[in-house]
Amino acid sequence: MKKIFFYFLLLLSICKVQSQEQLPFVENFTKSNYFGDNQVWSVAQGSDNALYYANNHYFLRYNGVKWEKYALPNKTILRSVFVDGDKVYTGSYNEFGYWKRISGKMEYTSLSRNKKLFTGASINEEIWKIFKHQNKIYFQSFNELFVYADNKIVKTRIPFQISYCFVVNDTIYLASVTNGVYLFENKSFKKVTKWQGLENNIIHGIATNKGQTYIFTQRNGVFVEENGKLIPWNNSLNSVLKKEIIITAKFIDDYRLAIGTAFKGLYIVDLKSNTHQNINRNNSLINNSVLCIGFDKENDLWLGLDNGISHIEINSPYTIFSDNTGVLGSVYTLAAIKNGYLLGSNHGVFKYQNKNLQLLPNSQGQVWDIHKIGAKYIIGHNDGTFIYENDALKKVNGISGGWKFQESDYDNKYFQANYSGIIIYNSPIDFTQYKIVDNLTKPIKNIAQNKPKELWAVDNYRSLYRITFNNLYEVEKVENITHQNKIWNDYGVKIFNFKNEILFFIDNVWYNFNSISNKLEKNKIFNKNFATISEIIPVNNSNFIVLKDKLLYVIHQIGDNYIWDLIPEKYYEGKIINQDTKVFRDGNQLLMNLDDGFFSFPLKNSKTKSQKIVIEAFYQGKMIDDNTSIQYNQSVEVDVISEYYGYNRLGLFYKLNDSRTFLPVKSGNIVLNNLSSGSQSLKVYYNNGERFIQVDDYQFNVDKPWYFSLVMIFIYILIISGSFYLYYKWNKIRYFEKLKLKEEELKHQKQILQLELIAENKLKMQEYDKHILEMQVQTKASEVAGKSLSIAKQSEMIDTIQSILDNESDINLLKNKIKKSIKINSINKNEWQSFEKNLMQSHEDFVHKLTHNYSQLTSKDIKLCIYLKMNLSSKEIAPLMNISFRGVELHRYRLRKKLELNQDVNLSKFMINL
């Protein structure tokens, strides 16, 4: 495999790749873009700046943003299209009419239907051309002319077969297929006799330029009228065209001519220099058969091809060099030479000169850098360092991978960054004599210098190095500056020397080096303006290029301001070589390397700033108007339509509502998703380099969510009302059920309470009865105790007296002994005290209650109350209290007064119930 590749490169080294040109930018459209047929027979630009095409079975419309496709009602093939005012006329098989744009859609009106125009000999006519002359619209077939004026159609039969009609100097010419050219006047045909020699020639174009008439034949080239006679066109291209088939031709302006052919694409002729460019499938077109040529507002070309459509920006300052063969490969560096360029690619060193691309012998391999010193070109190559001089290439040393060659502005030295570090050459330069920078054996990709005996270097992968030298240019110190400053994410460091100040872009932050503190410091100006870029490319001391969000901008510094000029993305989209994009000067033009070549563009932007912008919005495929109802959270597609298609088309940006972010308008189309309800405001801007300037705005409304619509609100009200009603009814039922349960519960509770009360009353009655019984027992016990004491004493006294009576006979002595016995058996003081104490204890509760209620009672009163409670009579109480019966009664009287009792109240019962 390696041998095959080697022989392939060897073959390239001895061969030239022909027909390589620096061409205008070509934008191609295929069926996959416009979803139509192959052939495009006719093209015209409308008053609305849209382009219209006759595309076989389809009528196409393109506004620079969106393709629209329509078909005739009878599905016939369209051959011609012509614009007059707001009407777009089309011609097809046995049919012609016009289209008008209504509510964002093209609607067709037939002029020939039901007119019986295509009958008899006219049964199979196709309208191949439409033109206007003296306010009349002409529909031309090969055998008929249909003239439309004042809403009437007049048909004229042509007595011979023609190719096309041409309006020249307000005169209609008919090109006969076999009999030359005729004038058409007053419905009659008159042969142009001065143009002899055109017989049996199919004529595909008649036009005038600077007073001369040009006639373009299909197979015999171009003729020019001079002094009333036709002569072959005196141009080197004419001999080529005689071998070609000319299908169409039009003058671009006074000095340029476009000729479309069947097999060789398009020729653009410069009438001043008699030179031409051939744009074909080998370099940029998608098809070599050019069926029609049209112009837009910028006077750029639109080609209808046998398979597709091409837009050629012939008036743009941007030109492209592209090698579609794959021989050149990806270009990494280039330099201007006489009448051409030296190109360094991954395939080797190529010389592009006089429209030829040639691989220089023995240069195969990766080329990184071409640097011009005087008449020499120093080439950094994968295999070593080469010099191109006097049209010859030679290898001068084996230093491989020369990424960058730089002349020192201070020390008469030259530096070359390469795969293994940096080497130094002395001036005058001798490439066999060089010094290797010590202590830096890394692949160094970029270097920069802004003061003597100091050099900055960047590793191919990471880190920033500062190298200082002594007077002999011996290395004094190599410092890893990023690590010294504790910047550990130092991959892909970029060095940028701007106005003799070296700036470093490290981890999305701009720094400059403070030589006093020996530290990196953040650069406020560049961090403010260029913190979000992904690439920076130097141009000169006042300009540089940045890559931001995949868009290239030329930066101009004016005072303290930076002006951003957008380079349209279409010129380099998908072709930029990341981390190796470079810019080279060629006079007033800049050259930028691309994957398959390079493109040239001006340093200064001269676009037309005042432009008409039209905004059209579509919802569900229909243009939005005042009656459009846009549902919540749906998508709206917005087309931002410029009046220009080429270089003058502005790079536009937009903001929605109160957003602060300016978003780029990609290909003129904006899709707004998930829109909230309410008024929406879309504003479109362009950037003049300093600020965003509004050019148009668009307002529309988005409906409230379906769940907030009037119907839904009414339903919500019904649901809520119904819910409240049901809730009310449910609560009412629950309420009544609760009442019922409550009543039953209360009833049960009442019953339970009653039962509890009965039980409690019974219990209380039992306790009361028990208490009464206890009181009665105590009372009876007291009575028993008192009576027992009394009986015991009486019995003892009786026994004693009985004994005395039995034993004593002396009366006096008997009396004395009886008295003594009575005295002895009477109750003594201690016995009374013990009796009273027991009496009080047995009636403790009664005494407590009595003293609590009647605090004025004395102890004797209390004793009397106890005796009364014991239900003793006054007679029984008298001896117990050691008073007379009368004394008891008096005491009872006094007690009643103290207790405030009436005479009707029984004192004993009162005491018992107390």
Short précis:
With 914 residues, the chain is of the alpha+beta class. Helices cover 23% and strands 40% of the residues.
Give the strand tally.
66
- Portion of residues in beta strands equals 35-45%
The outline comes out as: elongated
**Cα distance spanning the termini:** 136 Å
Largest β-sheet summary: 5 strands, antiparallel
- Strand arrangement within the widest β-sheet reads 1-35-34-33-32
Regions with little confidence, pLDDT below 50 for 5+ residues = 1-15
Number of alpha- plus pi-helical segments: 13
Helical amount: 10-25%
Which structural class do you get from the secondary structure elements?
Answer: alpha+beta
Q: Radius of gyration in whole Å, from Cα?
A: 62 Å
Q: Whole-number average pLDDT?
A: 87
